[in-house]
Amino acid sequence: MEKKRVSDEFEPGPLPPTRPLDRFGFVKQEQSFSPEGLTKSRSAYEREREERRVRKWRKMIGVGGSDWKHYVRRKPHVVKRRIRKGIPDCLRGLVWQLISGSRDLLLMNPGVYEQLVIYETSASELDIIRDISRTFPSHVFFQQRHGPGQRSLYNVLKAYSVYDRDVGYVQGMGFLAGLLLLYMSEEDAFWLLVALLKGAVHAPMEGLYQVGLPLVQQYLSQFEQLVKENLPKLGDHFLREMINPSMYASQWFITVFSYSFPFHLALRIWDVFLYEGVKIVFKVGLALLRYCEDDLIKLPFEKLIHALRNFPEDAMNPDTLLPMAYSVKVSRRLQVLKQEYEKRDNESPHASESSEKQVQTVTLKPHNLRR
User: SS3 sequence, 49-60?
Assistant: First the structure.
């Protein structure tokens, strides 16, 4: 007998009031008062530049991505450079699927997503429904209660919680799925989520959401050591003020900056993240602390915590922050720190209990979102 989707039992709520939106679909926080002529001139230049970039990318990926793998094999450095400059927004959904390996997963599993959504049940269904309105609450696609966006988000998260019952559903997963749904269909978003958590191309991310959040603890331990090594003055200040990364960086890793970063910056980070892996999260985090270091080392505990959760607008400029991040070298050191962490963890399995409790207190609240 066919199972009903839980969300089908709810009627969509009223449409939210019409408010000005930015180019990504988020409600504008402030009105821009740029002179009309300047705005037109700048937008015309940006359109022309974007059209040139799109033509290059279309030639590189081929029709429907048919040339992608061949181009990557022939010119990997060109691909890396162009991805770091930012994938054209109109091609982002397709390119994300190509570089993550999710397109191959979808083609190898026809009908599986529909089966998971329609015919299976999940122990997490009520938790998912409860959290849906907290995911990108200022984006027009997700604002209508039980509307198309919220239903799609529910379907993807429910399907994954059935597909991988060991992980099930954890709140931060909604921001990954929500981001993907803004650029692709439900089924495509589901398989990209699978590719990320199961490690189709890079290291699996499922440890970010498993019981005890083991991968979050590892990443925070690595990041703390990298701060001490790369920013010793700031590391000493954090030590004096008893600041550790679990107080400010947990959601960086759990949501790959999709939770509280400006959306245009989060997208640029995701472009690189899907191609190069989680090291970009460490690089961006270190670059952000380096950019703000002179101000941070002057702050006492409470003001420091606030500053680490509310970085200034100029620090969030992709054209400033990302080149700084790319210059940070962490790959080899991350591997060494991972081995040291695993050795400590094996020798003292209860040593990380306090940090585990700290990490698990991270709550993603809508009022903390800055768009």
Answer: HHHHHHHHHHHH
